[in-house]
Amino acid sequence: MGDKDTVEKFLDNNPQFATEYFDKKIKADVITAAFNNKVQVKDPSSYKDVTAIQESEFIFELVKEMQDYSQMEKALHKVLQRIALMIQADRCSYFVFRSRNGCPELTTVLFDITHNSTFQSNLVHPNVEIVYPTDMGIVGYTVTSKKPQVVADVKKDSHFSDFVDKQTKYTTKCMLTAPIMSGKDPIGVITALNKQGADEFSKSDIDLFTKYANFATLVCLQAHTAYMWDVESRRSQVLLWSASKVFEELTDIERQFHKALYTVRTYIKCERYSVGLLDMTKDKEFFDEWAIKLGEQEAYKGPKTPDGREIAFYKIIDYLLETEKEEIKVIPGPPADHWALVSGLPSYVAENGFICNMMNASADEYFTFQVI
């Protein structure tokens, strides 16, 4: 081991190494800025004391960020920056787990975070997010297995997929992942890629990553719980309001839909919506089948509802909200070329009973939407 003069000479001759080392280990300004008070350190050269103060300052800032759950991404960004700094990861990311149209998937929320990157540059806009199924890649395996993954060489891991690398022109060599869990259900995954200056992450790096993954879980859980409470609260308000309006007027179904959907539109924020009313008759009367029995009309061969009824919309109510003056149209016996029916989507929903959430209707190949 070198003496004091040797170490001092080495640091003088290698300023870049000295800067990187002390950026990782010690932040001098923390000693005076932690908790916005002057902190007395008995031995300023004590790595243990300075590290404890730095950790306290970081946790205090994190708690302040968590007071506003709507800024969850900012607090999580701070945690991932800290991870990138402490374990010398080339970049970190956060993927959120969601289910759309019954299909589980992962999407980028915070991407390519470094120890000095800005929040705005790492926050992914919904229009450019990367989405892929949970049965793809190590991140997908982390969600399905619900266990953290330590991959020293991604080329030797059978779960690895270069889908994201191809999208970003990046080369992943090694990685650490950790699932963010809400009880037994995953809500996201954090990742750390490519150890700087080494081929893989060390044991101490893995311990630090696990430690700060707990902070990330705390941030996400707090925001997730607050969000779910808000959703349930708004849903209860809408249901109570809709129920009260239904019992106010029981003679006109159009009025009922208008009252209920007028409030719902505040939450779905759409430009127009339509309500298609199905014929509830399952067994036809004799006179309805007379034309078929005489051969004057072909028997119905189209799709049917799950309970066996023919899909026939006897009335459509259109609510057009994109103009300054809202317009409501009630169309009895709507034609087949009605803008909503011609797409085939209403019949598909009636036949299968599915809720369809289409991100890009114009690019969909299954349904045909009119340009209106």
UniProtKB/TrEMBL annotation:
Residues 71-230 form the GAF domain. SUPFAM superfamilies: GAF domain-like (SSF55781). SMART domains: GAF. Pfam families: GAF. Coiled coil: none annotated. This is GAF domain-containing protein.
